[in-house]
């Protein structure tokens, strides 16, 4: 009897996670340029072809798929929601995006691998630049063309700084969910800015 789509999806998700965990271990042990996809396939006990059935390339294996904004949530944001406060809504949009793309287990290993390798730092910076451009565009759609793009970039950079602060907290206290660390970092940022 064939597996149900949910069962297949669960197995696919587990395999992708195993591949990413192995890639992160290899990166921490050997550096990003110190291993090949063949090394990963051997480490994970799969074929090279299997690796490429799950990921488009080495960067995606280590970092996961590129971040993207959910179109429905972006529409709510552009319409002035969910709260009506630009900062609160940008933070909510970022938190939802992060929750959809990472797990608490993968988060700490990913951050350590990224911070240990200059190539990964560059790749992450490129990804953040792309998502920043999307955030700026959404803010200008929401606030109107008169909204200063520099202000939109500042707000986006603030969201990224809060995210990074939450990541530091998660590394120090890995037993708490990342969402709680993010929430605490938001509270502290509001206190500092008030």
Give structural notes.
By secondary structure, the chain is mainly α. The protein folds into two domains: 1-64, Orthogonal Bundle (Arc Repressor Mutant, subunit A); 66-194, Tetracycline Repressor, domain 2 (Orthogonal Bundle), CATH 1.10.357. 77% of the residues lie in helices and 0% in strands. It contains ten helices and no strands. It has helices at residues 5-30, 37-44, 48-54, 58-63, 71-78, 86-101, 104-115, 118-143, 149-172, 178-193. It is globular, with a radius of gyration of 18 Å. The protein starts with a helix and ends with a helix. The model has no long low-confidence stretch (mean pLDDT 88).
Task: Give me the Rg, rounded.
Answer: 18 Å
| Global shape | globular
- Helical stretch tally: 10
Number of strands: 0
Q: Which runs of at least 5 residues are low in confidence (pLDDT < 50)? A: none
CATH superfamily of the largest domain, please?
A: Tetracycline Repressor, domain 2
- What structural class do the secondary elements suggest? mainly alpha
CATH architecture of the largest domain: Orthogonal Bundle
- CATH topology name of the largest domain, in short, is Tetracycline Repressor, domain 2
Average predicted local confidence, pLDDT: 88
InterPro entries: Cro/C1-type_HTH, DNA-bd_HTH_TetR-type_CS, Homeodomain-like_sf, HTH-type_TetR-like_transc_reg, HTH_TetR
Protein name: TetR family transcriptional regulator
Keywords: DNA-binding, Transcription, Transcription regulation
DNA-binding region: 36-55
